[in-house]
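Much of what follows relies on a compact textual record of a protein's fold. A complete example follows; check for yourself that the lines match position by position.
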Amino acid sequence: MNNNIAIIGSGFASIAAACYLAKAGYTVDVYEKNAQLGGRARQFANQGFKFDMGPTWYWMPDVFERFFSDFNKKPSDYYSLQRLGPSYRVYFGQDDHVDISDSVDEIRKSFESIETGSSKQLDIFLKKAKSNYDVAIKDLVYKPGLSILELVSRKTIFELPQFISTIHDVAKKSFKSQKLRQIIEFPVLFLGAKPSDTPAFYSFMNHADLVLGTWYPKGGMKAVVDGMLELAGELGVNFHTNSGVSQINCGEDNRVRSINIGNTEIPVDLLVSGADYAHTEQLLPLKSRMYTKAYWDKKVMAPSALLFYVGIDKKLANVEHHSLFFDVPFDNHAREIYDQPSWPKEPLFYASFPSITDDTISPKGKEAAIFLIPLAPDLKDTQELRETYFNIIMNRLEKLTKQEIRSSILFKESYCVQDFKDDYNSFKGNAYGMANTLFQTAFLRPKLKSKKLKNLYFTGQLTVPGPGVPPALISGKLVADLLIKNQKK
């Protein structure tokens, strides 16, 4: 048995894979290019404020529970969870917002107050969403994407029409209200594609949203990373920071022989990359790469983002922990991301105020704020543009929440396309990976195992099952299971 495994990157998928492989008896070393572990789920701290730099939503708690249960543990062994109520607020204009409750009954009432009869349509929609969730979790997402046959079962065969119609089609058919359609379409944005390009089957994300709810780990998503790192340490995984891999060396026998970190060459028996897939292949000799630049250029990437981390010298009014600002045309911004890539004229944006829920996130009496504007990947990124868009969203935030904020800002830090490229070697500076469109789903995504090299594997958001934190945990399990299975042959 080849016992030594090197893993590139320390995001959720890499840490998960490391845990499973260490449990199976392998010696596992994880190499992270940055000074902090966690990949995109790093934390920025300043003046007593703490900010999740990447993911801020904790959905699908059952996936986290399943991960820890594989090691006879529970999430509560490592971090504390709180269900948010309301889950989030959606602003449609001044004095016009909807709070999405942590109770389905209350959500039904909210829908009914906007459109008579919509609560019954919501019941029908959520019944199908739960059915899809059960099929997805039990029959699809824990498959390694090797063949179309993975999609074929007694349950899935009857769901094929849902892969032809879209979430947008279903929302339009179910609800007359544009507000309700946007609430229904919102969760699939986590999959990195327009609702009009996302198969209707992905309504299972609405079950995750409206039924399973939105949770918050005390200390932020870094607490989840820290919990997984603690588990990995208990299993004997070794982590190395400031250790970017600059080259992957291969032998004539079509095997990876070693990796270069700085001036040091490190022999490896098996290699798993949780780093950006396209970047990883650039580290290989040309003949050992599976996918060309043309292949990657044709793929629909999930959006990039412009983020701001802001320390505010007072508590804010009229906002919730998670707040969505849909007070401008939804479709226009979507076109500027996917169809005509450009900086949006009127951007939708998302704001997170974790210090509303967690008093460890900011100094007493102050507010930690995270703002995110989704963008097309690979846009020109300048400090002047960042400042322009900060002013745009602050103008709207102050107007919609009826308060003056800017004079209370202690500091702000921005993060955008170029930072994603520099820090994560992210293809085109994408923030979430590859979109889960019909032709980029399951076996149609880049493979977990190299077809050119016998001992090279991939994990993370550019392969199966797709973008998001729960899928990243699943991807780590899938690649570990596949590697272990192949080693037994």
The domain at 107-210 is CATH 1.10.405 (Guanine Nucleotide Dissociation Inhibitor; domain 1).
